[in-house]
Amino acid sequence: MSNVFGLIVSGRLVQTDFTPLTETTFIITIPETESINHAAVFLTGVAPLPAGTAGMVYWSWPDPAAPPSWQLLGHISNTKPSAIFKISNLKKLHELSAENKIGGAFGQQQICNYAQIGISIEPESNVELLASSVAAETNQYVTFAQKMLENLVNFVASFSVTQEQMTPTPGVSYIPLNTLHTWYQNFERRLQQNPNFWKN
């Protein structure tokens, strides 16, 4: 499956020199990652993926002290032959919690001083399983954020007073309650549109 996958990183030439590790796993090295914001991975059209499979796309930051630890970015397939991934928001290895690391996705590897993208050809059912687990996790975040915001608004509202009830207190700032309500409505709207907007 030589030259089946391609990679585009802004300001660089197209790369198609993915190294096969096994019949179903491939990696490519990306030097000088400091300026990378996005990476586009695609099927070149040389050959389709085997029927019923998808290419799960992984990212690994360089770590001079440890073998690669992979983060799942998403997937490509015959019906979705390309994808653009935002790399600049990914957490560096030392910031990752254990549950976000995928250590053995590409077997036992040597220490690498460059970032890498890996592609693992897997059954499409793995993609569907991943999509449902990501959706469930996203729903948990949205629910948590909404409950936390409601709690904050209710807590602050419990201290509200009318202008006639206010006693001037030097050095104390007051915020109109409607300002907090407007902020809450805007935050909730943005959360509904994109549950990950706060990561930017």
From TrEMBL:
GO terms for molecular function: Hsp70 protein binding; nuclear import signal receptor activity. Residues 140-200 form the Hikeshi-like C-terminal domain. Pfam families: Hikeshi-like_C (PF21057), Hikeshi-like_N (PF05603). GO terms for cellular component: cytosol; nucleus. Belongs to the OPI10 family. This is Protein OPI10-like. Signal peptide: none annotated. It comes from Papilio machaon. Residues 8-132 form the Hikeshi-like N-terminal domain.
